[in-house]
Amino acid sequence: MKLPVIFATLLFGFLSFSQEKTYTKSELDSMSLEDSFSNKGLINSVQKDTTSFKIIENVPVYKGCEKEKGNTAKKNCMSLKIAELFKQHFNTTLPEDSKVPSGKTRIFLSFHVDKDGSIVDSIARGPDKYLENEALRVLKFIPKLIPGFQKGEPVKVPYSLPLIVMIENKNDTKINFTYPVFRGCDESKTNEELKKCSQEKIKNFIKMSFDTGKADVALPLEKSTKFQLDFIINKKGKVEQVNAKANHRAIAIEAIKVAKRIPKFKKPGTSNGKAVEVPYSLLMTIYF
Predict the structure, then answer these.
(1) Cα dist. 163→45, 94, 251 in Å?
(2) What's the distance, CA 284 to chain centroid?
(3) Tens digit of each residue's pLDDT (9 = 90 or more) over 247-267
(4) Alpha carbon of 185 to those of 132, 193, 197, 277: distances in Å?
(5) Beta-bridge mates of residue 181
(6) 3-class SS string, 167-207
(7) pTM for the full model?
Protein backbone atom coordinates (compact mmCIF):
# COMPACT_ATOMS: atom_id res chain seq x y z
CA MET A 1 0.00 0.00 0.00
CA LYS A 2 1.35 3.39 -0.93
CA LEU A 3 1.57 5.87 1.91
CA PRO A 4 0.71 9.48 0.99
CA VAL A 5 3.43 12.00 1.71
CA ILE A 6 3.01 15.65 0.82
CA PHE A 7 5.69 18.35 0.84
CA ALA A 8 4.59 21.93 0.27
CA THR A 9 6.04 25.40 -0.05
CA LEU A 10 3.60 28.23 0.64
CA LEU A 11 4.40 31.47 -1.14
CA PHE A 12 2.45 34.16 0.67
CA GLY A 13 1.07 36.96 -1.41
CA PHE A 14 3.88 37.06 -3.93
CA LEU A 15 3.56 35.35 -7.24
CA SER A 16 0.90 33.53 -9.15
CA PHE A 17 2.19 31.98 -12.32
CA SER A 18 0.55 29.92 -15.00
CA GLN A 19 1.45 28.61 -18.43
CA GLU A 20 -0.32 26.14 -20.73
CA LYS A 21 -2.17 23.87 -18.26
CA THR A 22 -4.19 26.29 -16.16
CA TYR A 23 -7.49 25.13 -14.72
CA THR A 24 -10.10 27.36 -13.10
CA LYS A 25 -13.08 26.67 -10.92
CA SER A 26 -15.54 27.07 -13.77
CA GLU A 27 -13.43 26.00 -16.73
CA LEU A 28 -11.09 23.03 -16.47
CA ASP A 29 -9.62 23.29 -19.93
CA SER A 30 -6.05 24.03 -21.01
CA MET A 31 -5.42 27.68 -21.86
CA SER A 32 -2.94 28.89 -24.46
CA LEU A 33 -1.25 31.97 -23.08
CA GLU A 34 0.33 32.54 -26.46
CA ASP A 35 -3.16 33.23 -27.85
CA SER A 36 -4.05 35.52 -24.94
CA PHE A 37 -0.93 37.57 -25.59
CA SER A 38 -1.73 37.85 -29.26
CA ASN A 39 -5.25 39.00 -28.48
CA LYS A 40 -3.82 41.81 -26.37
CA GLY A 41 -1.42 42.85 -29.11
CA LEU A 42 1.61 42.09 -26.98
CA ILE A 43 3.27 39.75 -29.42
CA ASN A 44 2.97 39.20 -33.12
CA SER A 45 1.62 36.03 -34.63
CA VAL A 46 4.08 33.13 -34.74
CA GLN A 47 6.81 33.96 -37.21
CA LYS A 48 7.86 31.68 -40.06
CA ASP A 49 11.06 30.69 -38.26
CA THR A 50 9.31 29.78 -35.01
CA THR A 51 7.34 26.74 -33.90
CA SER A 52 4.44 27.00 -31.45
CA PHE A 53 4.54 25.21 -28.10
CA LYS A 54 1.23 23.63 -29.12
CA ILE A 55 2.58 21.74 -32.14
CA ILE A 56 6.30 21.28 -31.54
CA GLU A 57 7.54 17.69 -31.40
CA ASN A 58 10.07 18.27 -28.62
CA VAL A 59 9.59 21.35 -26.43
CA PRO A 60 12.48 23.36 -24.97
CA VAL A 61 13.65 21.84 -21.68
CA TYR A 62 14.57 23.82 -18.56
CA LYS A 63 17.54 22.66 -16.48
CA GLY A 64 16.26 20.12 -13.95
CA CYS A 65 13.27 19.06 -16.09
CA GLU A 66 15.14 16.59 -18.29
CA LYS A 67 13.70 13.51 -16.58
CA GLU A 68 10.06 14.61 -16.95
CA LYS A 69 8.17 12.37 -19.37
CA GLY A 70 6.38 13.98 -22.29
CA ASN A 71 5.98 17.53 -23.56
CA THR A 72 3.20 18.45 -21.11
CA ALA A 73 5.23 17.44 -18.06
CA LYS A 74 8.30 19.27 -19.38
CA LYS A 75 6.27 22.45 -20.04
CA ASN A 76 4.72 22.32 -16.57
CA CYS A 77 8.13 21.76 -15.00
CA MET A 78 9.50 24.77 -16.88
CA SER A 79 6.57 26.89 -15.67
CA LEU A 80 7.24 25.98 -12.05
CA LYS A 81 10.97 26.59 -12.42
CA ILE A 82 10.39 30.08 -13.83
CA ALA A 83 7.87 30.81 -11.08
CA GLU A 84 10.43 29.84 -8.46
CA LEU A 85 13.03 32.01 -10.21
CA PHE A 86 10.78 35.08 -10.03
CA LYS A 87 9.92 34.38 -6.40
CA GLN A 88 13.62 34.34 -5.57
CA HIS A 89 14.82 37.33 -7.57
CA PHE A 90 11.94 39.74 -8.28
CA ASN A 91 12.15 42.93 -6.20
CA THR A 92 8.57 43.80 -5.20
CA THR A 93 9.45 47.10 -3.46
CA LEU A 94 8.77 50.03 -5.77
CA PRO A 95 11.03 53.11 -6.08
CA GLU A 96 9.96 56.28 -4.28
CA ASP A 97 8.71 58.03 -7.43
CA SER A 98 6.43 55.18 -8.51
CA LYS A 99 2.72 55.93 -8.85
CA VAL A 100 1.68 52.27 -8.77
CA PRO A 101 -0.27 51.47 -5.57
CA SER A 102 0.61 48.55 -3.34
CA GLY A 103 -1.22 45.32 -3.97
CA LYS A 104 -1.71 42.81 -6.76
CA THR A 105 -0.56 43.83 -10.24
CA ARG A 106 -0.14 41.98 -13.52
CA ILE A 107 2.87 41.93 -15.82
CA PHE A 108 2.82 40.23 -19.21
CA LEU A 109 6.02 38.69 -20.54
CA SER A 110 6.95 37.11 -23.84
CA PHE A 111 10.22 35.81 -25.23
CA HIS A 112 11.65 33.22 -27.59
CA VAL A 113 13.76 30.19 -26.83
CA ASP A 114 16.30 30.39 -29.65
CA LYS A 115 17.78 27.50 -31.62
CA ASP A 116 20.76 27.37 -29.24
CA GLY A 117 18.51 27.41 -26.11
CA SER A 118 19.13 31.05 -25.19
CA ILE A 119 16.37 33.50 -24.23
CA VAL A 120 15.90 36.23 -26.85
CA ASP A 121 13.37 38.87 -27.98
CA SER A 122 12.12 39.51 -24.42
CA ILE A 123 9.17 41.87 -24.03
CA ALA A 124 7.44 43.03 -20.82
CA ARG A 125 4.23 45.02 -20.41
CA GLY A 126 3.25 46.29 -16.96
CA PRO A 127 1.81 49.28 -15.09
CA ASP A 128 5.14 51.14 -15.07
CA LYS A 129 8.64 51.01 -16.52
CA TYR A 130 10.27 49.89 -13.28
CA LEU A 131 8.20 46.70 -13.09
CA GLU A 132 8.76 45.98 -16.78
CA ASN A 133 12.52 46.40 -16.41
CA GLU A 134 12.55 44.32 -13.23
CA ALA A 135 10.76 41.47 -14.99
CA LEU A 136 13.22 41.63 -17.89
CA ARG A 137 16.10 41.65 -15.42
CA VAL A 138 14.88 38.46 -13.76
CA LEU A 139 14.38 36.78 -17.14
CA LYS A 140 18.15 37.02 -17.61
CA PHE A 141 18.58 34.53 -14.75
CA ILE A 142 16.94 31.79 -16.80
CA PRO A 143 19.73 29.34 -17.64
CA LYS A 144 20.36 28.21 -21.18
CA LEU A 145 17.72 25.67 -22.14
CA ILE A 146 17.83 22.58 -24.27
CA PRO A 147 16.25 24.01 -27.44
CA GLY A 148 13.03 22.79 -29.00
CA PHE A 149 13.25 20.36 -31.90
CA GLN A 150 11.00 19.84 -34.91
CA LYS A 151 11.73 17.03 -37.38
CA GLY A 152 15.13 16.55 -35.77
CA GLU A 153 16.20 20.17 -36.19
CA PRO A 154 16.47 22.86 -33.48
CA VAL A 155 13.83 25.59 -33.86
CA LYS A 156 12.99 28.95 -32.34
CA VAL A 157 10.00 28.69 -29.99
CA PRO A 158 7.80 31.54 -28.66
CA TYR A 159 6.90 31.54 -24.99
CA SER A 160 4.57 33.85 -23.07
CA LEU A 161 3.38 34.14 -19.51
CA PRO A 162 1.41 36.44 -17.19
CA LEU A 163 2.80 37.28 -13.76
CA ILE A 164 0.58 38.37 -10.89
CA VAL A 165 2.83 40.06 -8.36
CA MET A 166 2.13 41.55 -4.93
CA ILE A 167 4.08 44.81 -4.81
CA GLU A 168 4.80 47.32 -2.07
CA ASN A 169 4.83 51.08 -2.45
CA LYS A 170 6.08 52.65 0.77
CA ASN A 171 4.54 56.01 -0.13
CA ASP A 172 0.92 54.91 -0.25
CA THR A 173 -1.49 54.30 2.59
CA LYS A 174 -1.32 50.51 2.60
CA ILE A 175 0.66 50.05 5.79
CA ASN A 176 0.24 48.17 9.06
CA PHE A 177 -0.64 44.98 7.23
CA THR A 178 -1.65 41.94 9.27
CA TYR A 179 -1.88 38.39 7.98
CA PRO A 180 -5.11 36.39 7.87
CA VAL A 181 -5.52 34.30 11.02
CA PHE A 182 -6.37 30.64 10.53
CA ARG A 183 -8.43 28.71 13.06
CA GLY A 184 -6.32 27.53 15.97
CA CYS A 185 -3.78 30.36 15.68
CA ASP A 186 -3.35 32.79 18.58
CA GLU A 187 -4.26 36.35 17.51
CA SER A 188 -2.02 37.80 20.22
CA LYS A 189 1.10 36.48 18.50
CA THR A 190 3.39 38.63 16.35
CA ASN A 191 2.73 39.09 12.66
CA GLU A 192 5.47 36.65 11.67
CA GLU A 193 4.22 34.07 14.16
CA LEU A 194 0.67 34.43 12.80
CA LYS A 195 1.96 34.03 9.27
CA LYS A 196 3.86 30.86 10.15
CA CYS A 197 0.93 29.38 12.08
CA SER A 198 -1.59 30.04 9.29
CA GLN A 199 0.73 28.61 6.68
CA GLU A 200 1.28 25.42 8.65
CA LYS A 201 -2.45 25.01 9.21
CA ILE A 202 -3.16 25.37 5.50
CA LYS A 203 -0.44 22.88 4.58
CA ASN A 204 -1.77 20.36 7.10
CA PHE A 205 -5.30 20.78 5.79
CA ILE A 206 -4.17 20.13 2.21
CA LYS A 207 -2.13 17.15 3.36
CA MET A 208 -5.03 15.55 5.19
CA SER A 209 -7.69 16.36 2.58
CA PHE A 210 -6.08 15.54 -0.77
CA ASP A 211 -7.25 12.22 -2.22
CA THR A 212 -3.97 10.62 -3.29
CA GLY A 213 -5.91 7.64 -4.63
CA LYS A 214 -7.14 9.81 -7.48
CA ALA A 215 -3.57 10.78 -8.30
CA ASP A 216 -2.57 7.12 -8.32
CA VAL A 217 -5.37 6.28 -10.77
CA ALA A 218 -4.74 9.32 -12.99
CA LEU A 219 -0.98 8.75 -13.16
CA PRO A 220 -0.44 4.98 -12.74
CA LEU A 221 3.13 5.08 -14.01
CA GLU A 222 4.21 7.98 -11.80
CA LYS A 223 5.15 8.13 -8.13
CA SER A 224 4.61 11.86 -7.69
CA THR A 225 2.98 14.88 -9.26
CA LYS A 226 3.12 18.64 -8.81
CA PHE A 227 0.38 21.22 -8.79
CA GLN A 228 0.03 24.90 -8.02
CA LEU A 229 -2.94 26.50 -6.28
CA ASP A 230 -3.70 30.20 -6.47
CA PHE A 231 -6.54 31.70 -4.47
CA ILE A 232 -7.72 34.77 -2.60
CA ILE A 233 -8.54 35.09 1.09
CA ASN A 234 -11.35 37.64 0.80
CA LYS A 235 -12.34 40.38 3.22
CA LYS A 236 -14.57 37.93 5.11
CA GLY A 237 -11.79 35.38 5.51
CA LYS A 238 -13.14 32.96 2.90
CA VAL A 239 -11.23 31.27 0.09
CA GLU A 240 -12.36 32.32 -3.41
CA GLN A 241 -11.12 32.69 -7.00
CA VAL A 242 -9.40 29.31 -6.89
CA ASN A 243 -7.15 28.35 -9.80
CA ALA A 244 -5.10 25.20 -10.19
CA LYS A 245 -2.25 24.31 -12.48
CA ALA A 246 -1.39 20.62 -12.90
CA ASN A 247 -0.19 18.10 -15.45
CA HIS A 248 -3.47 16.17 -15.30
CA ARG A 249 -7.09 17.29 -15.25
CA ALA A 250 -7.96 15.00 -12.33
CA ILE A 251 -5.17 16.46 -10.17
CA ALA A 252 -6.36 20.02 -10.86
CA ILE A 253 -9.98 19.11 -10.06
CA GLU A 254 -9.00 17.50 -6.75
CA ALA A 255 -6.72 20.43 -5.84
CA ILE A 256 -9.54 22.90 -6.43
CA LYS A 257 -11.99 20.81 -4.41
CA VAL A 258 -9.59 20.72 -1.48
CA ALA A 259 -8.89 24.46 -1.64
CA LYS A 260 -12.61 25.24 -1.69
CA ARG A 261 -13.01 23.24 1.53
CA ILE A 262 -10.41 25.30 3.43
CA PRO A 263 -12.32 26.58 6.49
CA LYS A 264 -13.15 30.25 6.85
CA PHE A 265 -10.27 32.11 8.49
CA LYS A 266 -10.83 33.31 12.02
CA LYS A 267 -9.76 36.78 10.91
CA PRO A 268 -9.04 38.20 7.41
CA GLY A 269 -5.94 40.13 6.46
CA THR A 270 -6.06 43.82 7.36
CA SER A 271 -4.37 47.05 6.34
CA ASN A 272 -4.67 50.07 8.63
CA GLY A 273 -7.32 48.16 10.52
CA LYS A 274 -9.49 47.49 7.46
CA ALA A 275 -10.07 44.05 5.95
CA VAL A 276 -8.29 43.46 2.62
CA GLU A 277 -8.10 40.68 0.07
CA VAL A 278 -4.93 38.61 0.33
CA PRO A 279 -3.65 36.38 -2.52
CA TYR A 280 -1.95 33.07 -1.81
CA SER A 281 0.08 30.89 -4.14
CA LEU A 282 0.77 27.33 -3.10
CA LEU A 283 3.21 24.96 -4.83
CA MET A 284 2.97 21.30 -3.83
CA THR A 285 4.48 17.95 -4.70
CA ILE A 286 2.47 14.85 -3.87
CA TYR A 287 4.09 11.42 -3.52
CA PHE A 288 1.70 8.49 -3.79
Answers:
(1) 21, 16, 23
(2) 11
(3) 888 898 999 999 999 999 999
(4) 38, 9, 6, 19
(5) 267
(6) EECCCCCCCCEECCECCCCCCCCCHHHHHHHHHHHHHHHHH
(7) 0.50
